[in-house]
Amino acid sequence: MIIGHDKQVSTLLASARGARCHHAWLLAGAQGAGKASIAHAVALRLLAEAAGPAPAGDGVSVDPMHPIAKLVHAGAHADYIWIERAVRDKSVQARAISVDQIRALGPKFALAPAHSPRRIVVIDAVDDLEKAAANALLKILEEPPAQTLFFLISHAPGRLLATIRSRCRILHFQPLSDDQVRAILRDHHPGMEPHTLEFLVRAARGVPGRALSIAELDLGAVDAAFAEIARSGDPDNGKRCVLATQFAAKSAQARYEALLRRAPVFLAETACAQKGRALARTLAAYEQVSQLAASARVHNLDPQSAVFEIGSIIAGLAN
Q1: Span 177-198, mean pLDDT?
Q2: CA–CA gap between residue 303 and residue 301 (Å, rounded)
Q3: Residue 253: which domain range?
Q4: pLDDT in the model for residue 91
Q5: Residues 229-248: pLDDT tens digits?
Q6: Within 10 A of 51 (CB to CB), how many other CB atoms are there?
């Protein structure tokens, strides 16, 4: 079920159905805003319309029993191409989308679409392209294959090659309302306790994916640990050690990556309620944690050590 972003959905559908459909859209907004969900829903609807029978209604809904929906859900639709960072051995995701992944599109484009006149390519996220891959994509966008529509998902469009941006129409995704985030959380977690639901709505700040990641990876417990460390200063390092140990195993990789995204947000939220010296200390901690989190991702720092160091920065707020 798609909740929110009605204007963006209407814009994409109207363009694709029009006589002069633009070949590439840059879906821009905060990570977790719903861009990938919208891209998938719109792609499914357009592919179903193109192949027939036309789905009922004017929105993006498609009956799961529709033959195209069955192919898409099974990952077997030849004209629906979803590109993201590859998953390596032991379920570890690659750091970037490789040039080979983009070049692999060439042979597919040499063939006509299999199920209808339309083909759709989604790249989630285009920010993850390595340099050679970005250049390879640029060449494709300069001479786009016929009947092919690109949805390029971007969390930071300003960092992309200007030449890629110039070949796309940009569609911005703004934060959703609290009521919309609440409805999305209830849809995903119908039995959620009211106090947990409201905590997640506040943490989301209009970005439902942020709330869902906190719920699914139990980052609420991490927030509670951060808050206690900030309050007490953790003088014996005990709370930091307990927290860091939770991220030592490789199986905690997804939760660790979520923590790296969450820690700066926790400090930003904390700063919103402060003034004077406390505000200055928290903003300084925010800068330190943001830099550390970025370095941890780029240089593949030991998760246990990185989490302990983040905890140490937060502990400094109690001084």
Answers
A1: 91
A2: 6
A3: 217-318
A4: 66
A5: 999 999 999 999 999 999 98
A6: 20
CB proximity list for 166: less than 8 A, separation 6 or greater: none
Residue 53 shares a structural domain with residue 124: yes
Where are any strands of DSSP class E within 160-316? 169-173
Q: Which amino acid is at 211?
A: A
Sheet of 24-29, strand order:
80-83, 119-124, 148-154, 24-29, 169-173
Predicted confidence (pLDDT) per residue in 281-307, tens digit: 999 999 999 999 999 988 889 999 999
- The number of helices, as runs of H, and strands, as runs of E, in the chain is 15, 5
Residues 242 and 304 in one domain: yes
Asked if residue 167 and residue 62 are part of one domain, the reply reads yes
Exposure letters 190-207 (e unless 16+ CB within 10 A, then b): eebeeeebebbbebbbbb
CATH code at 11?
3.40.50.300
Neighbours of 13 (CB within 10 A): 17
Whether residue 122 sits in one domain with residue 248 = no
Instruction: Give the model confidence (pLDDT) of 202-216 as tens digits.
Output: 888 899 998 888 888
pLDDT tens digits for 92-143?
Answer: 788 899 999 999 999 999 999 999 999 999 999 999 999 999 999 999 999 9
Helix (H, G, I), strand (E, B) or coil at 225: helix
